[in-house]
Write a structure and sequence with these properties.
25 strands; mainly beta; 4-stranded antiparallel beta sheet; globular; single chain
Length: about 350
């Protein structure tokens, strides 16, 4: 089993302020900082960094209500607003475009593209109405989790064109999986992990070969539904399912687990680097509110919580604190214990 090698980040000196939310309880020697606090109490749902390093994020203040924002050089601007639509689950940057989703009151599920982000004339345009809940990327292609009506989750796939459009529209249905729609992520070898959002507290894993076969012939070789259970966490956490998932440089999964009544949790699930099997887990934090999307950016971990994006880091050792203080960049913070 590989060790958890995440290092204390060099950006300690750049952290603006410690997290003061009483609803957050850090565990396992971790703490957190507000990377971004939205200007009002609207919930940050998802976010990603574009090719130039600008941050894009989606918020919602109720149902319906959706806004998408761009933060660049310290300035935040609204790039999409619709008070009549319901916010989707994802903002994801692929190449020169940023994708996000919402749905109408009649349940038309929209995928929007914003870009090109490197030019001066970027705009939001409707890219597809493929059934979708979440949007994810791998190898320059777009993957979607979603369900037709109130059915079981399905995984959809489309390569992307140079103009940011979906080359398969509607996107190709790779097969029906499990539970209601939840997050997925790919490791460096192309294996795909998926965690249902409700009704199935498990994590599933498909090999890169199974993904390739489903893309090549989705009719005769769809994603298999046997032999793909990776871990059942139902006895470990009192939650409803997954909300956000990301994979670190060591190939471990970080998953936000949410619920309507019990505390949400941000958990790192360890992956054996030889067999690919489950190798234990570590809870990084819990929250009395629902947690949102999870991202790694420049090797550091982030999670959406309330109207903030939190940067999660291991607490510094005494020696690291002394060095930071000597450099004049010490940020005081106290880890909260449950």
């Amino acid at each position: 089993m590989k060790p958890n090698r995440r290092l204390f980040p060099l950006s300690l000196c750049l952290a603006a302020s410690p997290i003061l939310q009483a609803a957050i309880f850090y565990e396992g020697g971790h703490t957190g900082y507000a990377y971004l606090t939205h200007s009002d109490t609207d919930t940050v749902i998802s976010y990603d960094w574009g090719a130039s390093g600008d941050l894009y994020y989606m918020t919602s203040g109720g149902y319906p209500d959706v806004d998408v924002w761009k933060t660049s050089g310290g300035t935040t601007s609204n790039i999409y607003a619709n008070a009549n639509n319901y916010a989707g689950a994802s903002v994801v940057a692929v190449g020169d475009y940023v994708y996000f989703n919402d749905s109408t009151t009649s349940n038309t599920q929209n995928i929007w593209k914003y870009g090109p982000t490197s030019g001066g004339s970027a705009s939001a345009q409707l890219a597809s109405t493929t059934h979708n809940w979440g949007l994810y990327k791998n190898g320059g292609a777009l993957y979607m989790t979603g369900a037709v009506g109130f059915g079981t989750n399905q995984v959809f796939y489309s390569p992307l064109g140079s103009n940011g459009g979906l080359l398969n529209d509607p996107a190709t249905d790779l097969g029906t999986t499990f539970g209601s729609s939840g997050p997925l992520a790919f490791d460096a070898a192309g294996n795909m992990y998926y965690a249902p959002g409700f009704g199935d507290t498990s994590i599933y894993r498909w090999s890169a070969a199974q993904i390739t076969a489903a893309i090549a012939d989705p009719t005769h070789s769809p994603l298999p539904t046997t032999g793909v259970l990776w871990y059942d966490y139902s006895s470990d956490f009192s939650v409803s399912g997954g909300t956000g998932m990301a994979i670190d440089d060591d190939g471990n999964l970080v998953l936000s687990l949410t619920d309507f009544t019990n505390p949400s949790a941000l958990v790192e699930f360890l992956v054996d680097d030889v067999t690919g099997s489950f190798a234990g887990y570590e809870t990084l934090l819990t929250s009395t509110d629902r947690l949102g999307d999870v991202r790694f950016y420049d090797g550091e971990l982030y999670v959406a919580a309330g109207n903030q994006i939190l940067q999660i880091v291991p607490e510094p050792s005494v020696g690291a604190l002394a060095m930071a203080a000597a450099a004049g960049c010490l940020v005081l913070s106290r880890r909260r214990k449950a």
